[in-house]
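During the reporting period the student researcher (J.K.) took over the structure-prediction task from the postdoctoral fellow and processed the backlog of single-chain submissions. One of the processed entries is reproduced below for the supervisory committee.
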Amino acid sequence: MKRNMKATSALLAVVLCGGLVFAGCGSSSSTAAASASAAASSQEADYQKGVEQMSEEKYANAAEYFRSAGDYSDAADQCLEAEYQYVASQRSLTTSRGKQYMQDLLDKNYKDAKDLAAKLGYEASSSSSAN
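J.K. obtained the following structure tokens:
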């Protein structure tokens, strides 16, 4: 009885290992397609997290999620809006994050970024583009 059990276990191990080997032998195009699909799914998930963070008024988190979403949908526009909302919610720009966001908004001439910068006493860095 023990001998049959050992033989059955050994046969099962061989079958399982063989199945794993063959499962990994897919074509490179199907692997690439799976990778692209996973990346798109990750971008969509980051985008959705960004939307959630915006609704909770967690603008810095939202901006980072939208940035991670890459070229998914309108993530770039949503990222700018999250940065704008973050800066607009500040009384002054004392953090490096706030200053970076303000500079991004000025560089892209976003909404009333110039007026917002003036209101917050922010002076654009010399590396910003002249508009």
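The committee noted the following: The chain has six helices and no strands.
J.K. will present the remaining backlog at the next meeting.
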